[in-house]
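Weekly structure sync - notes
Attendees: PM, LS, DV (DV joined late)
Agenda: review two folding runs queued last week.

Item 1: First target. Sequence and structure tokens pasted below for the record.
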Amino acid sequence: ADSIKAMCTAFRVPADGICVDRTGNGAGVHDILKATRGYERTNGVNFFQAASKMKILDEDEGPAEETCHRMDSELAISAREWILYKYAWINPDYSHNELAAQLSGRKTYTDRKKRRVESKKDYKARNQDHSPNKSDAFCLCIHQARVKFAPLIQSVITTAGVRAAVGHDSK
């Protein structure tokens, strides 16, 4: 937890901008952060929990819980779609070959009308026991942006739509 706080301080990430993996050992780190003064608003995500009630993209007809098997699928699919539709991008100065391989290398399929990402165990079996840790971290960043900024984005979209509907330009 101390190294996370130090890194957040160094990169000027506010405490409410942190999203921690609560799966396995991460649960303890999350709990320590939440109990630390100033870090009470740290977000924690268990990859095995149910998918959320948020949409992945505003244009989606329904929330992720209706289209994704569970949270790990929602996280991976959200990251891919945010990159695809240019809601998120990776700084070209960052050496991202490993991250790109992990993001694109995780298989997805549809199971009973819900999208599903391959398990970490299956991914590792296909990739010489390498875990998709960079991809998981990136997915948590995208998730935090969705959680933190979705109300703001929806407000801007709604306001622009209302202004356009009543004949005002959307500037």
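Item 2: Second target, run right after the first with the same settings.
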Amino acid sequence: VMLKRLEERHRELLLWLMNLELDYLLTGNRLNLMKLDQKTIDAMVGAASEALKHAYAPYSGKPQGAALLTAGGDIICGATLEFATYGGSISADTAALVNAANLGHRQFQALCLQPFDWPSGVTRQFYAEFGVEVSLLVPEKGESGHYKLVSWPELLPHHFGPKNLDQAKAK
């Protein structure tokens, strides 16, 4: 069983590295292999959990809080805000990015969502506008309080972003 898990993890890592190399070749994006200390992770989880208290999700019944760690070390929060028209609703992770951008931040390290769920495709693209150096805190299965970092290129390989427009203008 242990050998099978190791083989699966090795295969996942190899695929991830191949996608990362292809993404770099196509877009020039580089991966920021950052690490977060436990104190920072705890602060982000706490901030996202606090933001969750302000979520408004009467239609989906899925309130969420988000904490976004900026390159400068600030934690900016956001919460789900739903409307009856659905189309105008804002996810917690998007709200955190909008709040951070409105405060002048343009570079980010990590995103934490409470309770955890994967960001939507639209949100992934929204974050990619500011680069793919951000990572997502993902709870480890069966390990309460333990998180792993998943890079944005893993979440959104071969994304379209500002560099694509720059390349098109240069032609």
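Discussion on item 2: The longest strand covers residues 108-114.
Action: LS to circulate a short write-up before next sync.
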